[in-house]
Amino acid sequence: MKKLTRVEVNYVSLANIALEIIRTVMSKNADYGDAWQADGAPGWAHELKTKLCRLETLSDGRQALVVDENIEETLRDTIGYALLGLLYLEHEHKQDVLEAELGPDWSR
Hints:
By secondary structure, the protein is mainly α.
């Protein structure tokens, strides 16, 4: 078994990685449209599950049949879908709050 390496957290590097992921999410959303939310929560949750399964496959050391997909890209995609999921849930929560405060017909 490979020895685990401890990494000291550099918050500037962490912020840079996060910004890169956000830029990628924005670019992909521009290319693909809002496909991630076409089916509501099941849509982005399915994409997230797919990426997690892919991550498990890659981290087990199994050879990837799709050469372009590696652990780093899969982690970035996973984080991107998680961010989109949080955005979706935040929007849903705001909708629920507005409906609770203004009634079910508030958006008409």
